[in-house]
Amino acid sequence: MEDLEALVRQMTLEEKASLCSGATAWTTEAIARLGIPSIVVSDGPHGLRRPAEEGQLLSRSIPATCFPTASSLACSWDRDLVREIGQALGSESRALGVHVLLAPGVNMKRTPLCGRNFEYFSEDPYLAGDLAAAYIEGVQSTGVGTCLKHFAANNQETDRMTVSAEIPERVLREIYLSAFERAVQKARPWSIMCSYNRLNGTYTSQHRQLLTDVLRDEWGFEGVVISDWGAVEDRVSGLAAGLDLEMPGPSPANDARIVEAVRSGRLDERDLDRAVLRILDLVRRAHREAGSTEGLDVELHHQLARRAAAASMVLLKNQGALLPLDPARPGSVAVLGQMGVVPQFQGGGSSRVNPTKVDVPLDELREAAPQASFSYCQGYREDGAADAELLRAAVEAARAAEVALVFVGLPDGVESEGYDRRAMDLPAGHVELIKSVVEVQPRTAVVLQNGAPVSLADWVDRVPALLLAGLAGQASGGAVADLLFGEVNPSGKLAETYPARLEDNPSYLNFPGENGRVFYGEGLFIGYRYYDTKRVDPFFPFGHGLSYTTFAYGPLSLSSREMTPAGSLEVSLPITNTGERPGEEVVQLYVRPRRSRLARPVKELKGFAKVDLAPGQSKPVTFTLTIRDLSYYDPDKSGWVAEPGEYDLLVGASSRDIRGEATVRLVEGVRAEQLLDADSSIRAWLEHPAGRSTLERLLPAEVAGQFGEGPLPPFVLELPLKKLPMLSQGAVDETTVERIVAEAGQCMGRPTP
Ligand code: BGC
Asked: Domain of life here (predicted)?
């Protein structure tokens, strides 16, 4: 397979069409006559789901390492760790004969209820995009491809195959496409998977603007667009719109439709050829990179899964330094709640991994503290319901022990692909257990196993310590023991807000939609963008997480007080470990524009770093900002715009714990000049250096002169430029206004009409 174009020329129309759908559920079509082999694809994201029976859509899968789910891994805020997991997934893929891993998923967490949130990273596109890029780099460094999914706006499972996500252009660009854009541009995934849903009325599987104009023409994506399994509606318009490969296969009826459409002239054969070329390129790449494998080292990957799980868990609360427990102390510990022996560590649906082994938390705790004595009580029924007998036994055990560890969470089946949760509640039996135990045992720590926020309202104020274990994969139990007994210092931070009530969530009134449509009425204001702008207090804010040590944030220094569009800015500060233990801190950088023409959130994440420090040690942390980090998307101008002016740079330990600030001024020459047109206010024109000089040059002296003589009345300043003829009572005519706009546009680099 050298000259792919020559190969396409040798193919019959039928062969070309057949290549555009899979041969089976997990393989592409091979064409023996031309020496075209097939490739194998497999789910993702947090482990391999390679079906044991070849070609079966639903089949038991071969054991593979179940790493922490994306919702957990994101809480590590650790690009290097995510890259390492990617490499491990790549090597498992090779060992199991998989060429393309159907991962990662980078959709935004718009509501805590989305059944698939555990498969996604964050409510923030910068964090999600960067972690997805690290994941892709890791997998693809092993010669295995990735398939970034689900493109786009698949933010709920309710009616996922039919619902139309109604999202304004600006919101799409800044929130729902942004993580895809970042991952595509930073890491170049081999393929991308369109979603099931419609976007503003059109199925994404046939959305030309999405699959071609934005993805390929703007972002430069060169890989294959694959349909989600069964997402194809109209195969022919999908192909023309940019959807290359239909999965699962085979799909003879659609192959025949492609042939017929070309014959009848309804489909340009060049569109088909383009798709075929891209698929051939993927196949060639996959086989070029494929080769010898070293087999799967189960134990090594389990250890990595444990390290990753520990780095991903979040210590949400630790009053009176209840944790860590002293492993050398021969005390008594009550382990309460069935999830202490049957952990919940992944969700349901296509991402479900058949793990190579599973750590049992109770066993791991015993191993971590051999001198302590442990008791165990189930605490609640298997289905989560309360049971008076089980509860009574647990309360007695809690009373008799010196410390209680209560294991709760969302039972298997609650979080899954295919449906959303109805509420944020924990099962009643779990809540009862926490409340009853904490009444008799003040030294109680709760361990929470869940892939999306749950309601903490009834009990969070009563418990001194709370560890978010998340859905941390098969080694979750070992990681919990590492953290509770201080073998590892917690360093995870929330990648999504834990709201005080479901009703506080900004999508609450617009979820899950009705009559086949869901309006993203909250616009840009999802997650902390909403809670922080609206000053709605959550239980735990975005970016929050505690450590067993403490960190001091030193003063911020900027590489310059001013920034130009072509330049970049470095923001640095020293971070010091001021406590007794080694630890890692996640440092976050947010940008807050002082003023903006269009509404903007009060702050947005534009940098993060994880730094490890020995006690007393200090290290510099440096972030680099570019013009894009200050920009918003102006749908009227179809471009990213950063207005000149001042921007505050906030560095903090969470979105609500800002430790230092500095301000940078964005100076002339930015693309903000594109902003000025006849509808822009006179104020905007005067405030812009290029705008002002154009006015002064082209307006009659008596009008221009007024701009120099102290401030004009505010109501005049707010009028659009096009009202100058009226305002000047004829001294300025319409042609002059047009000239001003055109000439200002030229010196601003805007194409003249
Ligand atoms: C899911 C995808 C998955 C595919 C193949 C679909 O139901 O939405 O994420 O990759 O199935 O299992």
From this structure: Bacteria
The domain locations on the chain are: 38-243, 298-534, 551-666, 682-745
Q: 381, 388, 398: which is closest to 339 by C-alpha?
A: 381
> Ligand 1 pocket, 306 CB below 6 A?
no
Could you tell me if the CB of 149 is within 6 A of ligand 1?
Answer: yes
| pTM passes above 0.85 | yes
Mutation probe of ligand 1 site: the residue of 41, 56, 102 with most atoms within 8 A of C-beta:
102
> pLDDT of 148-185, one tens digit each?
999 999 999 999 999 999 999 999 999 999 999 999 99
- Residue 633's DSSP bridge partners are 640
Give the residue among 506, 425, 456, 469 at the shortest CA–CA distance from 108: 506
* Phi, psi angles (nearest 5°) of residue 585: -120, 135
Binding site membership of 157 for ligand 1 (Cβ less than 6 Å)? no
Q: Which residues pair with 147 in a beta bridge?
A: 191
In this prediction, residue 60 carries a pLDDT of: 85
Q: Which residues pair with 478 in a beta bridge?
A: none
Helices 476-484 and 298-312, packing angle to 10 deg = 50
Task: Match domain 551-666 to its CATH number in 3.30.1120.10, 2.40.330.10, 2.60.40.10, 2.60.260.20.
Answer: 2.60.40.10
- The enclosing H or E element of 436 equals helix 428-440
Q: Which of 35, 150, 146, 58 is nearest to 98 (CA)?
A: 146
**Would you say residue 675 has pLDDT above 70?**
no
Instruction: Summarize pLDDT for 551-582 with one digit per residue, the tens.
Output: 999 999 999 999 988 889 999 999 999 999 99
For the chain, percent helix, then strand, then coil, each to nearest 5? 35, 20, 45
Residue 751, CA distances (Å) to 96, 152, 675 in order: 53, 31, 13
Half-sphere exposure of 598 (CA within 13 A, CB side): 19
Place of tokens 């054969």: 269
Closest residue to atom 4 of ligand 1, CA basis = 229
For a ligand 1 pocket test, name from 59, 106, 350 the mutation site with the most ligand atoms within 8 angstroms of its C-beta: 350
Identify the CATH assignment for 298-534 out of 3.40.50.1700, 2.40.50.320, 3.40.50.300, 3.90.950.10. 3.40.50.1700
255 in catalytic set: no
Which of 228-232, 258-262, 676-680, 745-749 shows the lowest mean pLDDT across its residues? 745-749
The residue ranges of DSSP E strands in 155-302, in sequence order, are: 164-166, 191-194, 198-199, 202-203, 224-226
CA 23 to chain centre: 32
229 lines ligand 1 (CB under 6 A): yes
Ligand 1, atom 2, residue with closest C-alpha: 228
Please, what is the average pLDDT of the chain? 94
Q: Predicted confidence band at 360 (pLDDT cuts at 50, 70, 90)?
A: very high
CA of 224 to the centre of ligand 1 (A): 16
CATH 3.20.20.300 is held by the domain 38-243: yes
For 634: left if phi > 0, alpha if psi spans -120 to 50, otherwise beta; the answer is beta
193 alpha carbon to ligand 1 midpoint, in Å? Answer: 9
% of the chain surpassing 70 pLDDT: 96
| Best CA proximity match to 159, nearest among 350, 419, 349 | 419
Angle value at C-alpha 552, between 550 and 556, nearest 5 degrees: 155
Task: State the pairing for strand pair 191-194/202-203.
Answer: unpaired
Atom of ligand 1 nearest to the CA of 49: 12
- Asked whether residue 669 carries a pLDDT value surpassing 50, the answer given is no
Token readout for 306 is 């444990």
Does residue 484 register a pLDDT over 80? Answer: yes
